[in-house]
Write a sequence for this structure.
């Protein structure tokens, strides 16, 4: 192994001349900031937190790629800093950080590795898989100690560069929608996949932020009526070595290398800072259409992976300070993510990195909220050791932050470690992806549940999970599908996953799909199977949009998108994952899209369908109706025994005259009443419609949705309705006599 002096000499010889030290500059803000110097000239201040480092070199790259190094000699509060006159926006740079190589204690400094600035606002270039990017010798003959042997090869040929960006945008012309949680309808989409095959988006804009900002893309969102797009990761990310070896890429983007940089691969404006302005213009365009922007963010781990993974940024800056090391083996990492490492959010500098990133995207990039991937990993540690702790310093920092406490916060409330499943456990201010809703609704419509106890909770807002601690129904983000898993169409077309194209012998992806192919695996020409599948899609979409809580639609589900049975298409940057807009030319899929839009409009028009408070099941006034009632097919209110009895059919009546909510002037809200009937059984069911005090005598119910019919709407004869097998009805209930209220 080379000595520190020998390594230093070798690195300097390969990198070119070391320039004069920069001016002292300032220790804040972190990152690279272009500004005017003391003499009135342009320049850039650089600041890097690297507490345990012995020295830091700032590396600049000219247009030919030649590297020059500038030793940062100033250090305040563990931050190395300096100002370089003449350095302008568009300049590419990186760091080389010197320090001890002692993997047994977690020290992995290696100045042969060019590092990204954790605060870089733009990134140019991609990570190319190569052994030289690892800080340790991957192919060392003794594999069990390979991670302890330093690799002295220069990594700069294979890693991206940070880019200096000038930001002078004050957002004076932006108008944020500020949609209340209770009125929110989420639409999860991939920037690239949503736009790549859209026929009305110019080819040079497809797959980009500019493509999503195009009027043709926004027109679909507004016709659908969604209030927010939830974007799969747009932070700069890298593809893993094993994917590159198979000629694949990390398409979803859950492998971050830059928490401040918009992913350059989605930019039509280049990668030298143009991606920043393009992203902002996209946000402005969506805001102008009344649509909020929520980012899926990955702060639980980084693309550096395990101890033999690439050294791209944090590992080379201060490994032990940024990552959770294994308690009894500091050479390795505590891995609660399944991705090789876990960020250590117990530490102030990591909390600062995460919250600085969140504030940057919320202020300077204009976004409206965040969905946190594997959020339980962010709450591990603190006073409770390695357990998930809902009083964790990170959660406390977010909840008291005057900006972050006002944006939308969504947790994926689990990780892969012990005790990591935390659905219903996050504190107030947080909404959560509710996988119990997903599983219950899937099971009900495929006929896998003997009774309807849990379905009642899920339809009415999951009070069993979220009523504690002052939370509301909108803490539950309801979904039937998401990016991870089957599409809605595949959910009713496949019994098994078909992930062979991923190159992992179909071992990847979950086997717990709770799907049903309805008699044929995959696509079929059988008209009866296809008709039943389409009806089930209507059932699932209607159930989602008529449940209390915040619905999330996965892009393309509204018009029959398929991934051919692939339930883990994270590496498929091709037609498997891209939306096929030609499906809208087919009547059945177009009608599904129209039904989805009609249900969203209905939800928006009627507050009884999106209530802010949990149902009580009691009357708001003496002698009045309860706000919620459940019925058997006999038209009788369900008893305790009915909830435990095997059944595939029930009714839920939402009273618009007994709502507990008030308007801004303090007046009680009033709305229509609705009766939702669900029959997951094969056989038709005659359902007796509730009479007084639920509906006016001799007045007809009005059918608004019948998933078993080709046309909907119109009066429903008084008395009973025939529910087709595997079908859902939504009826408007006639108003009862006000004297009975």
């Amino acid at each position: 192994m080379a000595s520190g002096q020998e390594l230093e000499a070798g690195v300097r010889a390969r990198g070119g001349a070391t320039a004069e030290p920069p001016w002292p500059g300032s220790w804040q803000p972190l990152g690279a900031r272009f500004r005017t110097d003391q003499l009135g000239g342009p320049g850039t201040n650089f600041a890097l937190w690297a507490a345990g480092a012995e020295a830091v070199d700032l590396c600049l790259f000219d247009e030919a790629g030649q590297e020059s190094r500038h030793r940062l000699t100033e250090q305040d509060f563990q931050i190395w800093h300096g100002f370089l006159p003449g350095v302008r926006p568009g300049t590419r740079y990186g760091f080389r950080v010197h320090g001890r190589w002692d993997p047994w204690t977690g020290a992995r400094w290696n100045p042969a590795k060019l590092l990204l600035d954790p605060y870089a606002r733009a990134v140019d270039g991609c990570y190319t898989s190569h052994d030289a990017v690892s800080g340790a010798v991957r192919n060392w003959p003794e594999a069990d100690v390979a991670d302890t042997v330093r690799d002295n090869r220069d990594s700069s040929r294979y890693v991206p560069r940070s880019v200096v960006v000038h930001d002078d945008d004050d957002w004076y012309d932006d108008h944020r929608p500020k949609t209340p949680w209770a009125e929110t309808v989420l639409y999860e989409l991939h920037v690239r996949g949503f736009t790549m095959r859209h026929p009305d988006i110019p080819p040079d804009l497809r797959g980009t932020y500019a493509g999503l900002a195009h009027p043709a893309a926004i027109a679909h969102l507004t016709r659908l009526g969604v209030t927010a797009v939830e974007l799969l990761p747009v932070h700069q990310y890298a593809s893993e070595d094993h994917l590159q070896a198979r000629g694949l890429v990390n398409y979803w983007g859950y492998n971050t290398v830059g928490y401040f940089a918009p992913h350059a691969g989605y930019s039509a404006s280049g990668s030298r800072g143009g991606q920043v302005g393009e992203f902002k213009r996209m946000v402005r365009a969506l805001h102008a259409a009344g649509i909020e922007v929520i980012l899926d963010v990955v702060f639980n781990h980084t693309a550096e992976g395990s101890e033999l993974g690439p050294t791209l940024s944090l590992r080379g800056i201060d490994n032990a300070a940024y990552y959770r090391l294994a308690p009894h083996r500091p050479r390795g990492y505590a891995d609660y993510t399944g991705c090789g490492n876990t960020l250590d959010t117990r530490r102030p500098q990591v909390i600062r990195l995460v919250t600085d990133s969140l504030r940057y995207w919320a202020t300077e990039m204009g976004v409206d909220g965040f969905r946190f991937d594997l959020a339980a990993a962010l709450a591990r540690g603190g006073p409770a050791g390695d357990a998930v702790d809902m009083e964790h310093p990170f959660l406390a920092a977010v909840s008291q932050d005057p900006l972050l406490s006002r944006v939308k916060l969504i947790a994926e409330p689990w990780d892969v470690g012990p005790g990591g499943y935390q659905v219903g456990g996050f504190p107030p201010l947080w909404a959560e992806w509710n996988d119990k809703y997903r599983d219950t609704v899937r099971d009900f419509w495929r006929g896998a549940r003997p009774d309807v106890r849990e379905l009642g909770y899920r339809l009415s807002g999951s009070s069993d999970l979220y009523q504690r601690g002052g939370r509301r129904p909108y803490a539950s983000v309801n979904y039937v599908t998401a990016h991870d898993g089957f599409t809605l169409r595949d959910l009713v077309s496949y019994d098994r996953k078909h992930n062979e194209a991923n190159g992992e012998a179909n071992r990847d992806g979950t086997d717990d799909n709770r799907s049903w192919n309805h008699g044929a695996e995959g696509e079929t020409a059988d008209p009866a199977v296809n008709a039943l599948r389409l009806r089930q899609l209507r059932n699932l979409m209607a159930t989602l949009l008529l449940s209390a809580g915040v619905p999330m639609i996965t892009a393309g589900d509204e018009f029959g998108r398929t991934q051919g049975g692939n339930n883990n298409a994270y590496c498929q940057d091709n037609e498997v994952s891209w939306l096929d807009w030609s499906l809208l030319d087919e009547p059945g899929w177009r009608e599904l899209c129209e039904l989805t839009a009609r249900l969203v409009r209905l939800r928006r028009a009627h507050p009884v369908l999106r209530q802010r408070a949990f149902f009580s099941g009691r009357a708001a006034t003496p002698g009045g109706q309860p706000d919620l009632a459940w019925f058997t097919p006999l038209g009788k209110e369900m008893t305790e025994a009915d909830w435990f009895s095997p059944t595939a059919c029930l009714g839920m009546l939402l009273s618009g005259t007994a709502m507990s909510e008030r308007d801004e002037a303090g007046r009680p809200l009033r709305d229509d009443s609705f009766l939702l009937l669900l029959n997951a059984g094969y056989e038709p069911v005659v359902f007796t419609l509730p009479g007084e005090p639920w509906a006016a005598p001799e007045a007809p119910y009005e059918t608004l949705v019948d998933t078993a019919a080709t046309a909907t709407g119109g009066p429903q004869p008084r008395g009973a309705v025939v529910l087709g097998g595997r079908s859902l009805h939504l009826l408007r209930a006639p108003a009862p006599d006000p004297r009975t209220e």
Observations:
- DSSP finds 16 helices and 32 strands in the chain.
- The chain has three domains: 31-164, 181-300+343-607, 616-733.
